[in-house]
Amino acid sequence: MKRKNQNSGLLIVSGQSGSGKTVALNALEDLGYYCIDNLPAVMLPQFTELCLDQHREFGNFPAAVAIDSRNRAFLESLPKNLNALERLGIDYRIIFLESDENALVKRFSETRRKHPLTNNITPLIDGIRQERELLAPLSERAVRRLNTSLMTPHELRRLIRDIAGIETFSGPVVMFESFGFKYGTPVDADFVFDVRCLPNPHWNETLRPMSGLDEPVAKFLDDEPQVQKMLEHIQSFIEHWLPNFHQENRSYITVAIGCTGGKHRSVYMVDKLSRYFSAKETHVQIWHREISL
Q1: pTM of the full predicted structure?
Q2: Average pLDDT per run of 10 along the chain, which is 293 residues long?
Q3: Torsion (CA) 139, 140, 145, 150 in degrees, nearest 10
Q4: Which is nearest to 178 in space by CA: 157, 155, 162, 199?
Q5: Using alpha carbons only, what angle is made at residue 221 by residues 235 and 198, rounded to the nearest 5 degrees?
Q6: Which domains does the chain have, with CATH numbers?
């Protein structure tokens, strides 16, 4: 499906219960989106046509809806309703939020909220697994899948604002993400580069409390030939293959750069890569998973 102006279409937020859909909708409301939570899927075509009427009368009228397992009575007809949107020439995007089982169990235990698919005979873990299967058709159609297991609400809001604020696609949006291998590899990454073989500022007591965004750490890594060679190789690899993703109509590409703790080398690399590709007019997003900005 070709997307020219994303803000003129419909944004569908879906995902597992406890993965952050409420946070996402609140972020979209702050951006001026008209948001409806738990819209029955059968009402998608009618709702979107009403929004288009408002768009014609009042100008820009961005809208977003949340569809999830609370909608399970209507989910079977969802593919038919999405196809109806396409026949009407209505652009839509699906953002799908998911989290690891352990993270979801912890969140429900802390909030004491009831999972929508649990009952007297269905324990929480079974409800989580049933929900994942139930929402598979939405997950498969998503242009962006976000794993929120290690995200704070602030980080999720920022990502949602970045995604919603993109006006046009002249090519894929490239997300550069730094992370620490000791905290786990990002599950939604398209490419993962391991930079643990590079000189580590952690062993310098002066640099240890800093991050790869601080000038002394950046200068330390700037002066290391191995670091610059690795940076050139990663730049060249992405630059070579990015046009292929554009030809395949991929909307988002996630490039994850990992070091041991996700604080120095990976952060430095992401900063350098984002600057390089931004200068080439690539739409870039950044997320430093292990550091608080």
Answers
A1: 0.63
A2: 46 92 89 85 81 59 84 77 81 90 89 84 90 88 89 86 63 89 90 97 95 96 97 95 77 91 97 94 89 64
A3: 60
A4: 155
A5: 75
A6: 6-164 (3.40.50.300), 173-288 (no CATH)
